[in-house]
Amino acid sequence: MALELKDLLCDIHTHTIASGHAYGTIRENAQGAAERGLKLVGTSEHGPKIPGSCEPIYYACANRIPREMFGVEVITGVEANLLDDGTIDIPEMLLGFLDYAIVGVHGFCYKNHGAEENTDLLIKAMGIEKVHFVAHPDTDKYPVNYERLVKAAIENRCALELNNSSLRKPQERPGCYDNYRKMFAECVKQGCYIIVNTDAHDPSEVGRFEKAVELLNEVDFPKELILNCDLDKFKAFIDYDYDRIMGF
Ligand SMILES: [Zn+2]
Ligand SMILES: [Zn+2]
């Protein structure tokens, strides 16, 4: 049966003004999520190496963010930057204040090392405890070996992201459509979860998964491997702890 927008219950890659180049607040993002029928939204500001993003204390105080707004559950993460040595730009101590981390490649803090080494570096970062997602592994600018990336994702309890923003602006992520088709084929073959995110930089984008749903239906991607479709499964995947009290 075809995937429908309403089957995707969460969007965990969204940005707010705290990222320095996004334009809404967490409340506005949560309101957007509520309007689009989501049950859960994750706020994931960029790591500190993106110009204008948060200071470390921002992540350390994330427990001040209400866990529910507009009837939508709110969780807090970070879109950490992969660095050229396979580490990320946020220390594990700070990750302890957050529910999850997404690792992503961004040109500000990473140069292309070629498909095999890009894959090795992402695999190293996937080994970090809180890292459970790889953002937009989809562009010819930073190619990866999907067979190896998918295998390592399974071994490290990571899900690979389908990023709706890439599909909306393929000129910025060249090759993304074909790369996603390759990634999906490996995910199905090996049994790897994906997560569908909007990467919203404005509240109007939160939960707008249209392009992603179209592509997933084109390849008949199985719902069972889409983490957004089952929030219990999603929460178990990130070891979600509602009673997390760390923070200042
Ligand atoms: Zn990103
Ligand atoms: Zn992002």
Task: Explain the overall architecture.
With 248 residues, the chain is α/β, with parallel strands linked by helices. It has a single domain, classed as TIM Barrel, CATH 3.20.20.140. 31% of the residues lie in helices and 16% in strands. The chain has helices spanning 26-35, 56-60, 92-95, 115-126, 146-155, 164-168, 176-190, 210-218, 231-237, and strands at residues 10-11, 40-46, 68-69, 72-81, 100-104, 131-134, 159-163, 194-197. Strands 1, 2, 3, 4, 5, 6, 7 and 8 form an eight-stranded mixed sheet that branches. Helix 5 (146-155) links the parallel strand 6 (131-134) and strand 7 (159-163). Helix 4 (115-126) packs parallel to helix 5 (146-155). It is globular, with a radius of gyration of 16 Å. The mean pLDDT is 96. Residues 13, 15, 79, 199 line the site of one zinc ion. One zinc ion binds at residues 79, 104, 106, 135-136.
Brief rundown of the structure:
This protein has helices at residues 26-35, 56-60, 92-95, 115-126, 146-155, 164-168, 176-190, 210-218, 231-237; strands spanning 10-11, 40-46, 68-69, 72-81, 100-104, 131-134, 159-163, 194-197. With 248 residues, it is of the alpha/beta class.
What name does the CATH topology carry? TIM Barrel
SSE run: EHEHEEHEHEHEHHEHH
CATH class descriptor: Alpha Beta
Mean pLDDT: 96
The total beta strand count reads 8
Low-confidence stretches: none
The CATH superfamily is identified as Metal-dependent hydrolases
The number of distinct structural domains comes to 1
CATH architecture: Alpha-Beta Barrel
Counted by DSSP, the helix tally is: 9
Radius of gyration: 16 Å
Unique ligands: zinc ion
In terms of structural class, how would the helical and strand content be classed?
Answer: alpha/beta
Shape: globular
The span between the termini is 47 Å
Could you give a short account of the major beta sheet? 8 strands, mixed
Query: How much helix, percentage-wise, in residues?
Result: 25-40%
Query: How much of the sequence is in beta strands?
Result: 15-25%
